[in-house]
């Protein structure tokens, strides 16, 4: 591929969420996953819980998640019954080992699609099997247009500490063109209520490169975000994985026929994120990863735990988890998910046991996304000097100006950090390179 082609936002995955790539996870490994669940946990490994709420009001044109926009109230209740059953089954497994939950994450889809009554009922039922009273963080993702004041009161009373608002952009035309269900007035209404209710942390999600984005509008988005003064800001660069509405259009139009939309190229999206980093830096935020800025001494417990190898029960249709050194993913259709739980089975669909060498690569590449690696951490945990073990990869990226090495640490440059996902395959084992990622 030429440099120019690489810099165009074309079809395919950019974001590296895990290692080894998902395409290596197989149903054949499910017996290993079940053994892992039946073993006590590794000492000092925290335990987290992810709950996937797969409902949305509309499907955003760039969305590649397993979501449903056509389910009725009965379907939702049936799904929540299954979710409770799944968590009950997990709560009885030896892997729990008496550990309290260290973090909880309600993701989606749109968790805030659920009504206050549904949420309260769900948590009451979950509390028969688990509690998050001792958790350091309980995150709840929200689509601004689904929030009402009483729902936010319920969320705060249920113990949500980190409210994550999927704002993505402040311009109504861009929001509409990209298929978002909310408009800017709903952003301000929801944000005001959330602030008044004093959640520990409010995060705002933005996307750099939505269709229709311009420099002028992006600057306004950054300005308006700073004006709202959230505790943290997450910015993703728009990508076009294969199963989005946009990708389908790109695939059906003929070679000579231009698509009806265009997405900014990668250098432009990086320049937009870099601008946001600079402006938010002036406003008191620090860059805490390639995608996140945090104000003051704030933390993002879920991310840090995952990137340091914590266990996590991934519950809900198609959810990903990690248990005792084994990657797991649930079955990815509604019907299979409900049917397996109706039979009282944990609804795993595929798994991958991860040998220590791959666990090391996984943590190294995920932590590289924070912009900094401490070799002492890896020496302690894996007994490996990463500066030596990955010397060739670090040297290659250092030659390109993407990172610098000091005695005992590695630091990404701004340029490197802004395209870190593209650089991470440098550290993949040969059999994991050049293959389909998902
Ligand atoms: S709100 Fe989020 S999960 Fe739902 S369709 Fe849009 S991007 Fe996908």
Task: Please tell me about this protein's structure.
With 438 residues, the chain is of the alpha/beta class. It folds into 2 domains: 3-307, Alpha-Beta Horseshoe (pyruvate-formate lyase- activating enzyme); 374-438, Orthogonal Bundle (Arc Repressor Mutant, subunit A), CATH 1.10.10. 39% of the residues lie in helices and 18% in strands. It has 18 helices and 15 strands. The chain has a 9-stranded mixed sheet with strand order 7-8-6-5-4-3-2-1-9, sandwiched between helices. A 3-stranded antiparallel sheet has the order 10-11-12, with helices on one face. Strands 13-15-14 form a 3-stranded antiparallel sheet. Helix 8 (215-228) runs parallel beside helix 10 (266-282). Residues 56, 59-60, 63, 65, 67, 108-110, 143, 166 line the site of iron/sulfur cluster.
Envelope shape: globular
The CATH fourth-level homologous superfamily of the largest domain: tm_1862 like domain
The unreliable regions are none
How many strands? 15
Task: Report Rg.
Answer: 21 Å
CATH topology of the largest domain: pyruvate-formate lyase- activating enzyme
Largest sheet, if any? 9 strands, mixed
Q: Mind telling me which CATH architecture of the largest domain this is? A: Alpha-Beta Horseshoe
Mean pLDDT: 95
Oligomer: single chain
CATH C-level name of the largest domain: Alpha Beta
| Content-based structural category | alpha/beta
For the largest beta sheet, what order do the strands appear in spatially? Answer: 7-8-6-5-4-3-2-1-9
Distance between the termini: 20 Å
- Percent helix: 25-40%
Bound heterogens, unique = iron/sulfur cluster
Total of DSSP H or I helical runs spanning 4+ residues: 18
């Amino acid at each position: 591929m030429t440099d120019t082609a690489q810099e165009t936002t074309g079809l395919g995955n950019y974001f590296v969420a895990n290692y080894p790539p998902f395409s290596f996870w197989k149903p054949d490994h499910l017996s290993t996953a079940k053994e892992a669940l039946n073993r006590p946990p590794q000492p000092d490994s925290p335990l987290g819980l992810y709950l996937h709420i797969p409902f949305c009001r509309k499907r955003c044109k760039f969305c590649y998640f397993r979501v449903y926009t056509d389910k009725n109230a009965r379907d939702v209740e049936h799904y929540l019954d299954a979710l409770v059953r799944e968590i009950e089954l997990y709560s009885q497994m030896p892997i729990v080992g008496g550990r309290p939950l260290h973090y909880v994450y309600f993701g989606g889809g749109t968790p805030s699609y659920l009504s206050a009554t549904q949420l309260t009922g769900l948590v009451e039922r979950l509390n028969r099997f688990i509690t998050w009273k001792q958790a350091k963080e309980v995150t709840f993702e929200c689509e601004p247009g689904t929030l009402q004041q009483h729902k936010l009161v319920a969320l705060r009373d249920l113990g949500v500490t980190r409210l994550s608002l999927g704002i993505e952009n402040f311009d109504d035309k861009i929001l509409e063109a990209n298929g978002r269900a909310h408009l800017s007035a709903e952003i301000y209404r929801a944000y005001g209520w959330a602030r008044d209710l004093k959640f520990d942390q409010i995060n705002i999600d933005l996307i750099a490169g939505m269709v229709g984005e311009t420099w002028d509008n992006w600057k306004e988005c950054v300005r308006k975000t700073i004006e709202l003064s959230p505790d943290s800001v997450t910015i993703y660069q728009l990508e076009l994985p294969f199963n989005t509405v946009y990708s389908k259009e790109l695939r059906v139009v003929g070679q000579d026929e231009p698509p009806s939309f265009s997405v900014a190229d990668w250098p432009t999206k990086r320049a937009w994120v870099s601008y946001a980093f600079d402006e938010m830096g002036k406003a008191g935020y620090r860059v805490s990863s390639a995608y996140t800025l945090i104000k003051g001494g704030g933390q993002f417990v879920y991310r840090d735990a995952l990137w340091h190898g914590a266990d996590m029960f991934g519950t809900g249709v198609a959810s990903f988890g990690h248990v005792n050194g084994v990657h797991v993913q649930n079955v990815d259709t509604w019907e299979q998910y409900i049917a397996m739980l109706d039979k009282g089975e944990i609804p795993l669909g595929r798994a991958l046991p991860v040998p220590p060498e791959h666990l090391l690569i996984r943590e190294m590449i995920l932590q590289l996304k924070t912009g900094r690696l401490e070799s002492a951490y890896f020496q302690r945990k894996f007994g490996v000097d990463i500066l030596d073990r990955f010397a060739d990869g670090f040297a290659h990226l250092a030659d390109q100006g993407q990172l610098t090495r000091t005695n005992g640490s590695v630091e990404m440059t701004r340029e490197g950090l802004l395209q870190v996902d593209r650089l991470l395959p440098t550290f993949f084992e040969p059999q994991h390179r050049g293959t389909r990622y998902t």
